[in-house]
């Protein structure tokens, strides 16, 4: 995160919508420490980030922490992702991952304190639906990004295919193919865990409506990301999210290395066992000679040898 003077105090930032592209706004923040540019990003993408958090956590204080942690992650990763075309999709995915971490941590605290992790008022009435929705979010999070983002944007964020394709910078046909592959892979993962994927399950998981973030939440998120004053719980959640993303990349790299190693071994074994030519192997001491006609002296020599 840049350590340059910010342009004005947080409470003096303009509230008017900034029409500059995400990449330009993020570049201004990274290069000049422009807090106004960062606030414009928070206001532009805040409703969707809060929506991603509430899909998993409901209307709980943990969702507000996820909101702040998502934008703190953005501030820390600005140098790496400022040229990324689909910033909105990236933020939504980060918020979804952070919300799952927050829910896991809440469940751990609940076990320790022997209490339920969320008020009954925000829980789905059907325990089976609630558990299925939780497993659904877990398996969504395990999908590769190319398959996960289309599902998140179209089913949880409520985008049309055209809107999601524009957000991700791909054609509609490409997006349709990724949606189909993503649904198939998600269905297979859920079946292995004893859950079918009916048509309404994704819609049920997307049911909590997300209101626009409050002015206080926006200002807190901007201040935390640009001045390093985020609450301890938000900083901890951000570190957990960063570690989770790094671990996912390490696992992917390990899989790639393993596949390359297996292919290399197969190539070596194939080369070792393959014939050296159409006529079979070549002897180490040179090509095999075809015996010519035997002379009388050869026949006598062989007879003497056999006699001995």
Low-pLDDT residue spans:
1-16, 120-127, 248-260, 279-288
Radius of gyration: 31 Å
Total number of distinct structural domains: 1
Helix content: 55-70%
Structural class by SSE content: mainly alpha
Number of helices: 13
Global morphology: globular
The percentage of residues in β strands lies in: under 5%
Reported for the largest beta sheet, the result is:
none
Mean pLDDT: 74
Number of beta-strand segments: 0
C-alpha termini separation:
95 Å
* Helix and strand sequence: HHHHHHHHHHHHH
Concise summary:
With 308 residues, the chain is mainly α.
Written account of the structure:
The structure is a single chain. With 308 residues, the chain is mostly helical. The chain has one domain (10-257). Helices cover 69% and strands 0% of the residues. Helix 3 (61-76) packs across helix 5, helix 5 crosses helix 7 (145-156) and helix 6 (127-142) crosses helix 10. It is globular, with a radius of gyration of 31 Å. It starts with 21 loop residues before the first helix and ends with a helix. Mean pLDDT is 74; it is low at 1-16, 120-127, 248-260 and 279-288.
How are the SSEs ordered, and which strands pair?
Layout: H1 22-32, H2 35-57, H3 61-76, H4 78-81, H5 87-113, H6 127-142, H7 145-156, H8 161-168, H9 172-192, H10 199-205, H11 215-227, H12 232-273, H13 296-307
Helix pairs in contact: 1-2, 2-3, 2-5, 2-11, 3-5, 3-11, 3-12, 5-7, 5-12, 6-10, 7-8, 7-9, 8-9
Provide the descriptors you would attach to this structure in a database record.
single chain; 308 residues; mainly alpha; 0% strand; globular; disordered N terminus
């Amino acid at each position: 995160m840049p350590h340059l003077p910010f342009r004005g105090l947080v409470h003096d930032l303009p509230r008017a919508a900034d029409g500059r592209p995400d990449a330009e706004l993020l570049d201004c923040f990274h290069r000049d420490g422009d807090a106004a540019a960062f606030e414009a990003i928070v206001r532009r993408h805040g409703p969707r980030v809060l929506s991603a958090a509430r899909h998993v956590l409901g209307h709980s204080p943990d969702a507000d922490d996820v909101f702040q942690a998502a934008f703190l992650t953005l501030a820390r990763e600005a140098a790496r992702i400022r040229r990324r075309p689909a910033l909105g999709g990236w933020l939504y995915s980060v918020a979804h991952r952070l919300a799952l971490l927050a829910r896991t941590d809440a469940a751990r605290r609940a076990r320790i304190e022997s209490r339920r992790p969320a008020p009954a008022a925000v829980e789905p009435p059907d325990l089976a639906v609630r558990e299925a929705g939780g497993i659904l979010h877990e398996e969504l999070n395990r999908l590769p990004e190319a398959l996960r983002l289309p599902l998140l944007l179209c089913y949880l964020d409520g985008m049309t295919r055209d809107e999601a394709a524009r957000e991700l910078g791909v054609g509609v046909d490409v997006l349709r193919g990724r949606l189909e592959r993503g649904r198939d892979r998600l269905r297979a993962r859920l079946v292995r865990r004893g859950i079918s994927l009916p048509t309404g399950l994704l819609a049920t998981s997307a049911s909590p409506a997300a209101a626009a973030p409050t002015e206080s939440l926006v200002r807190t998120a901007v201040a935390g990301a640009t001045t390093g004053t985020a609450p301890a719980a938000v900083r901890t959640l951000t570190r957990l999210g960063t570690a989770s993303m790094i671990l996912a990349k390490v696992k992917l790299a390990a899989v790639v290395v393993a596949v390359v190693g297996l292919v290399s071994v197969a190539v070596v074994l194939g080369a070792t066992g393959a014939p050296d030519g159409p006529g079979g192997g070549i002897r180490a001491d040179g090509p095999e000679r075809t015996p010519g006609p035997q002379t009388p002296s050869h026949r006598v020599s062989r007879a003497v040898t056999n006699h001995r």
